[in-house]
Write a structure and sequence with these properties.
This protein has about 425 residues and is α+β, with helices and mostly antiparallel strands. It contains eight helices and 15 strands. The strands form four sheets. A six-stranded antiparallel β-sheet has the order 5-2-1-8-7-6, with helices on both faces. Strands 10-12-13-15-14 form a five-stranded mixed β-sheet, covered by helices on one side. The longest helix has about 90 residues.
Amino acid sequence: MTNDRINNINIEELTDKESLTSLINIIHKLSQDIITAQSELDIFNILSTDIATQMQFIDCVVYKVDSENKVLKQVAAYGESKIEKGEITNPLQLKFGQGHAGISAKTGETLVFPDVSKSSDYVLDVVQAGSEMVVPVKIQNKVYAVISSEHPEKNFYKEEHKKLLEVLTSMAAGVLVKIHEKDKLEKVKEKLEKVLHKKSEDLDKAIDALSEQYAEMKYQNDKQETLMQEVHHRVTNNLQIISSVLRLYINRDTSKASESLIEIYNRVQVMALIHQNIYKSMEMNMVDITSYMNDLMSFLKSTSKTVMVQSNFDISAKHFSLDILVPLGMYITEVFYFWVERAGKNGLNEIDFDISLKRTNDKFSFDLNIKDQMSYELNDPIDVEASNDMNSILISALIDQLEGDLSQGFEGGNFLNLNFKTIV
């Protein structure tokens, strides 16, 4: 609504430049008020009170249209008989087609009645009128509200009144659309804020519950980890005791039987290495492959008395479980001794191994490739089908346990390639 008072002007007196300037000022002021309105009620009050004040209307009422129920209800008014303590006294409600305002709501047309006594559609509100003008406020060709102004004099409303109100209602319609969009956005925002608040509360509860579960699971896991470490520690100690006993017998026995004891001793040491690596690992039942392979090959090289062994590693795997690592470590051990024995029979005193362990295209499959750097092919390949050789029998059993496939041959060196399945 307007705050600065503009001098009232009579449309009938617009005969000089000063009066025209005053009219333009009125239009400018009212349009600014409409454009800066913040709510629907602000718009309705401007269309009733401010317009009536500036245009010397005695009476002006705004009806809001309820298209669904086909009724109009007074929502803003100007006039001594209309307002009491800031509220409309007995707001009139009309049906579509009832009274001049109802007809305008139904047809969407501006209506001017110079003499209401000649209209059978006139509905008395508070005071008998002489003339009436009705202007619809349309949004997207649909009547949203109706302005009705009554005056005790007949023939009061002129064509200029009609045109001026139509211009102002057109402006008001545009602002109403923006206000409605803003209100919709505010409702969406409020709804989203409620949803987010609810989700935030639910998330906080879920985090608290998960935190409690995590704390309990961590406690149980720590207990199990401590227990598992103790188990592996005891297994390692027991294997070391067995190794010590075997070493005593080996030192006392000078017969050929000591060779079998040495083989048993070496394999017990391989088992002990696995448990030692598990014991020092931060993850129970998971062993760092690179660390274990280094330890294993260092031990195996130390047991070879006739052939010097060098090894190079290319390992892409990180960890294997105990179920995979035990047969894999035993497989490498048996292959090592098989290879060293064949190299010794061929008069070699040095072997360089290239050992690679890489994931295949199948994410649950790995290739373990062991290759020497010899310039000629060794005799006696591993026979995993029918050999009576103990090394070959053990290698065959370990390949089956790993669900693997073995390929061997000579390509710039002798090689053994084991493809095996695992989940890591």
